[in-house]
């Protein structure tokens, strides 16, 4: 066990209900101050094979329980997460640099709901009947089998439960591959699952880096589904391996989302919301990072947003008044810094920020760049750090063209008179878009992107349709003589 903020964290894989020590290891450190938190095991091929075999063995009995039988176990799982709230919040904040206040007030309740909501919703899956003159069609959602769940470092607790919730609720068994830069909260989740009485093998976890541990996992032929959130480059590799075994994938990837401010927008509301894009150091895939502002209000909007950004507290994410924390890793800081410098060298104007922040080694100033061309790298590529760009437009048509002119299509934000904003937003190629708001989510609603921002949708019935094999059981209403001409 290692100890983080006074909380013990297992330094082991979790396979078939047992804690399995690893032979090789790698160091985990806190982005807050660079302190080494401890060593975690690096999963081997045999570790991965053992986890997948365990999940495959546990699948028939877990699936046979039915949604009603799984419900009380999963509710206990959510309760165990709640009982570990302090440990989960403090450990994940130390490990991933996420705001402690955000974990306490948003992520823990949401993580518990990710389990209970899907567990209850799964009970309704078999109630769908399609009647035709010839027959009744009973549409079933049967669990697919063994699911690999691979989560990113920017929101490990929330995204792991977001994926495992529907997977487990619909009767699948799972192997979790936590992010190597922020793996610790996943170990605490396994403790909660164990305490809740999930049968051995239903939920497994193997630590390790994407290569080789993740590669071993995605290439295993026993997998029925792969659910991944992360980068486009990694998703391509996963898709290639999955194709070899014809394993369906759900891929939630990057974004370069537009934040559109129309001439008839509430500028103060838009500016205050715009400043929120820097939370979690903009290490958030759905943040609006390309500000498209009507040319007539560009000056006033920029002044208002600059005022709100200047008031943001950058620093230790475990302090209650902090609003912008650190970047996750030195490699991420170097990436963000390089993006910024290349943009400046290419002629971008720095409206604010542009440099490292004095709060610590991995802190970067909230930054806004302007005077950038549409084909500039800083406009087209995902930075995943607190560096935004501001462009102007003169008409709705130009705003739509600029908004759609990247390879990404995850999210978007549009401020303006409601009817005007909604009409324009309907023409933006994106998976979702907020009107005069940001961050409103509901588990029943679809989440996902188009173009290079992903394949598939998560949430509500869309999660179940991914994690299940949909089957049609056909019962004729009268004696039916088949014809080979029918299909």
Condensed summary:
With 487 residues, this protein is of the alpha/beta class.
Number of strands: 24
Proportion of beta-strand residues: 15-25%
Q: Largest sheet, described in full?
A: 7 strands, mixed
Order of strands, widest sheet: 16-17-18-15-14-20-21
Overall geometric form: globular
From the 3D coordinates, which CATH architecture of the largest domain would you assign? Answer: 3-Layer(aba) Sandwich
What is the CATH topology assignment of the largest domain? Aldehyde Dehydrogenase, Chain A, domain 1
Q: CATH homologous superfamily of the largest domain, by name?
A: Aldehyde Dehydrogenase, Chain A, domain 1
Task: Explain this structure.
This protein is an alpha/beta fold and 487 residues long. The chain has two domains: 272 residues, Aldehyde Dehydrogenase, Chain A, domain 1 (3-Layer(aba) Sandwich); 179 residues, Aldehyde Dehydrogenase, Chain A, domain 2 (3-Layer(aba) Sandwich), CATH 3.40.309.10. Helix content is 39%, strand content 22%. The chain has 15 helices and 24 strands. A seven-stranded mixed beta sheet has the order 16-17-18-15-14-20-21, sandwiched between helices. Helix 2 crosses helix 6 and helix 4 runs parallel beside helix 5. The radius of gyration is 24 Å and the shape is globular. The model has no long low-confidence stretch (mean pLDDT 96).
